[in-house]
Amino acid sequence: MTSNYLVYLIALPLFGSALLLLAGRKADKWGHLLGTAMSGGAFVIGLYEFTQMLGRSNEQRAVTQKLFNWISVGSFQVDAGLMLDQLSICFVLLITGVGTLIHIYSIAYMSHDLDRRRFFAFLNLFIAAMLLLVLGDSYLNLYVGWEGVGLASYLLIGFWNQKPTYATAAKKAFVANRVGDMGLSLAIMISFATLGTVSFAGVKEHAGQASTGALTAIGIMLLVAATGKSAQFPLQAWLGDAMAGPTPVSALIHAATMVTAGVYLITRSNFIFDAAPTAQLCVAIIGAITLLFGAVVGTAKDDIKKALAASTMSQIGYMILGAGLGPAGYAFAIMHLLTHGFFKAGMFLGAGSVMHGMDDEVNMRRYGGLGKFMPITFATFGLGYLAIIGVPPFAGFYSKDKIIEVAFNAGGIKGITLGSAALLGAAITAFYMTRVVILTFVGNKRWAEKAHPHESPALMWLPMVLLAVGSVASGFIFTHGNSLKNWLAPVVEQSPVHEGELLKPAVVSVLALVLVILGVGLAVLKYVRKDIPLVAPSDVSIFTRIARRDLLQDDFNEALFMKTGQGITRALVVTDKSIVDGAVRGVARLVRGSGSALRLTQTGFVRSYAMWILVGAIGLVAAIWVVTL
Amino acid sequence: MSSFTAPVLIYSLLAPILIVLGGAVIGVMIEAFASRKIRPVLQLSVTIGTLVLAFAQVWHIRHQETASAAMGSAVVDGAGVLMQGAILFIAILGVFLIADQENFTVIAAAVPGSEEETQSIQSGEQLTEVYPLTLFAVAGMMLFPVSTDLITLFVALEMLSLPLYLMAGLSRRRRLMSQEAALKYFLLGAFSSAFFLFGAAYLYGYAGTVSLSGIGAAITAANGNTVFLLIGIAFLSVGLLFKIGAVPFHAWTPDVYQGAPTPITAFMAAATKIAAFGALLRIFYVGFENAYWDWRPLITVIAIITMLFGSVVAIAQRDIKRMLAYSSIAHAGFLLAGVLALSKAGLDASIFYLIAYGVATLGAFGVVTLVRDSSGEITDLNRWAGLGKRSPFVATLFATFLLAFAGIPLTSGFIGKFSIFSAAYENGNKSVVIVGVLSSAIAAYFYIRVIVLMFFSDPVEDGTSVIIPSFLTRLSIVTAFAITIFLGLFPAPLLNFISSTAIFIR
To answer: How far apart are CA A262 and CA A268, in angstroms?
Structure first.
């Protein structure tokens, strides 16, 4: 099947971005409206394609569109082509749907910013790049989108780059992402070298002929790419700082969509990981580590956005874990991705709403008792909260529970370890999210003197309400009759073998619920009706201090990479100055010196010129005589 | 009494040369009889008309290959036709520059600063003998690469040289320097011609014939006295290497390039190089082909010294014309790589290089004529500082020509250098190629230094300005620019044309 409309999905927001950037200040008045319209237009096209898809049988739902012959070098042929299948439509709807809501939200949120037009231009650029990422029909096309979202993310994190720390945060995100991008480019190169193709269909077809070693190498490189983009261990350090961007950006890019690109990449490459068990195991392990890592960091953060960012990292850890569990887990990884898209975006927008009412204060120790003053924000945030900690029947319950269950059923020690990690993560999640809610919305007021908290305008709370609806209902919809699992089946190839169950689903649910209640209870005991100091106490255990320092992620990077890197750079500079430059300058001096010396042969006297000719002639004869001796 | 055989000349095939000679004679007539008012216009139109007509005739006969156009003294073949066409094309562009009579002395025969000169200036007299002289030189240049015996070669050599000696002394400003250049050029030219003739005599002694194919056959038969052959090759080479400005026969180049009126320098630098290399290629490819192992080390050494010397000494120059002169010496070295290739690819590459280099040289010297102050052209490099800010258009054109000389991609120079070096490399001349690439790197330094000087230095306020050029000058420079860029972007049409056309018939 082909469709002629796919390109417009990307073209609309791309056009919006270009127009807003080129039109300059002239577009200040209507730029935000155009940007929102372009995103909304893409959503409408996405919905249209979705309804068309529903009307076809499960095997024929994927549509493609060839745009042009992109690279044609000998046997290396890459078409710029788009492909919309059951997996990408999920992303298309999430990106354009949540994206449009966040566009609407931003109209109000950014209304006082002089550069609102530029903000919308970047948002549109992001939407276009993200759509290209999920619509590309080859790794190379995906790569273009992958870089595009990286650029948009960089531009938006550093949107308020007049603050040097924000600019640094943008740079940090960019650098960390470069490491991941290198993984992706290596994966593409290995794929071309061993399989001779980089298109999804081609790689899938030829994957069987490649050696396990090559597939493992591709898989590991893809995992490196995923850890960079999705802030997974060990490339997770940038996400917390990325909260420097305006809150809608955090909601859209650093919670709902871009950071989940790694999950997309791994799910899309299921045919590689299924054939390379080692790489797949690495994926699961990375996911498990990150979900605990993020959760622990989340318990120690006082900055509401950074707490949510740590939570995002942790939740994506769940998704990666799910994707690393093979055919049994792909669908649940994607399901968690979608439900997370709703509830986390909703909570970020809620946090933005709180900041909007509190003069951009982000320290939760300066909040307290806001629920009364911001009832809608409290309600929507609360629904998101119930979803993320996994209370039935909210969305997170269905998706997270399934991942834990699949992890336990992975078999052997692997299953028990991964399952326990996921279970433990759920308990910590319940703890730190409860902490966030208590510190922010209940308890006594700890506001700054000038603060006048108030509910945000409708343009802001409307998207929050819609996302809250998603937080409530999406889990049920996706699991009802295994709808999402069946929907994705043609893409991720369910394995027909039903593996033995270690724990019955009901047992997992009960276990998880018990742990969640424990986590919530602990947080309630610790924070409700207690005096929360305005400044974080410093006489705390070493563990708390380590958690506050993001489990030493920056210290680690600094010691291992930055210091070494700086050392190498310094050494190289010295080498360059003394040896390379020395050689270059020496040669230059030599050349110039000999030029000046040889110039003296040019005496201006005909007699000496004639002598040169004579000498030359004699020299020629002598030389030819010597040569032929 | 041996009977005298009347020579058989195929006039249609010799017509391009004859047309140019005829035009030159008409030019002499005009100089003698036409009134002062119409003389410049008349001379210019006759000259251009002659060149265009000759060009058309060259195009017309391009497929009529024969070795017997003039009793075996001149040949019509693909390579020769290409050279003749290139010379005529360059000559047309050169005459456009020459048409700006501002550069030429009003009366060359007068002693500089004499009463006679002053009177002529006051009366508005302007002699235009430069046009017929140009045509005579062009005729010689056209004959040079198609000559197939040593006598005709010598005649052609003198035919192209003598007018050039005179033309070098025609400068209006700094007349003494100009006359000194002319005299130097004449003396040294005569000296090297003597070597050429001497070498020809040795070769006759070796082969018993002066025809190139005859010499080639004698080398193959290998029954002559090899000493005669080797001395002959060496001395003949001296005469040719002098004309192309190879080291150590180069010494005249900077002085003459600097002293001659700039339009003449432009014409001379571009067209003489094509003619001399045309002859050089024919002699070595046709006559000395089988003595390759004897002359290869010789030419290799000369090529290497020439490239290095030209590039290195150019760095020390402070005068734009002298710098371009040394650059042309370096390019002579690069072109010798094409001679060393001794292959079809080498021939094709050499012809392409000659055309590309000729056009760019003409354009570069054309720009030099434009930068002036009240006392005439400014050739001091320091006073070119900041030209890019005052006259961005002219500076950009000049920068393009310099980049072409440096062999930067997207200009004709890159394609030329690449093809000539790869041809030389394929035939095993690795040392020449390595030195060639290194010299190119050195040469890039002084080309780019001028660009930096023009665009990134602050202008000096000393009255240096770019004059508004005449239409013809503009046409010439812009055409050169367009061709330089076009050949850089789309070299294939010309390369294909050359490779399908260029052959030496024996």
So the answer is: 10
Tell me if B184 and A606 make a contact (CB, 8 A cut-off): yes
**Is-contact B393 B371, C-beta < 8 A?**
no
- Radius of gyration, CA atoms only, chain A: 29
Is residue A489 within 8 Å of A327, Cβ to Cβ?
no
Domain ranges of chain B: 11-501
Question: Cis peptide leading into B297, omega within 30 of 0?
Answer: no
User: DSSP assignment, residue A257?
Assistant: S
Contact A617 B312 (CB under 8 A): no
pLDDT higher than threshold 60 for residue A331: yes
- Please tell me the least confidently modeled range out of A145-159, B110-124, B312-326: B110-124
Hunting for tokens 């056209």 — which residue is that?
B142
**Inter-chain CB proximity B298 and A609 less than 8 Å:** no
Residue located via tokens 């969305």: A395
Q: From residue B143, give the alpha-carbon distance in Å to each of A52, B27, B191, B196, B250.
A: 78, 20, 21, 17, 23
Q: Nearest residue of B to residue A609 by CA position?
A: B251
C-alpha span between A414 and A400 (Å, rounded): 18
The H-assigned helical ranges of B103-211 are 115-123, 130-143, 150-168, 175-207
CB pair distance less than 8 Å for A602 and B251? yes
**Band of the pLDDT at A494, cuts 50, 70, 90?**
low
Q: Does B237 sit within 8 Å of A599, measured CB to CB?
A: no
- Written as one letter, the residue type at A421 is A
What pLDDT does residue A500 have?
61
Quote the CA–CA distance of B14 and B8 in Å, as a whole number. Answer: 12
**Shortest CA distance from B247: residue in chain A:** A616
Q: Three-state SS across A388-452?
A: HHCCCCCHHHHHHHHHHHHHHCCCHHHHHHHHHHHHHHHHHHHHHHHHHHHHHHCCCCCCCCCCC
Question: Are A134 and A90 spatial neighbours (Cβ–Cβ below 8 Å)?
Answer: no
Query: What pLDDT score does A62 carry?
Result: 83
Answer for the pair B71, B9: CB distance below 8 angstroms, yes or no: yes
How far is the CA of A520 from the CAs of A320, A350, A464, B265, B289, in angstroms? 25, 20, 24, 93, 96
Q: Are B447 and B406 in contact (CB under 8 A)?
A: yes
Of B226, B238, B252, the CB nearest to A616: B238
In this prediction, residue B3 carries a pLDDT of 75
Backbone CA torsion sign across B485, B486, B492, B496: negative
Q: A625 contacts in B (CB within 8 Å)?
A: 230
Sorted by where each begins, the domain ranges of chain A are 556-627
Residue A71 — φ and ψ, nearest 5°?
A: -125, 130
Helix ranges, A499-580 (H): 505-527, 542-548, 553-557, 563-575
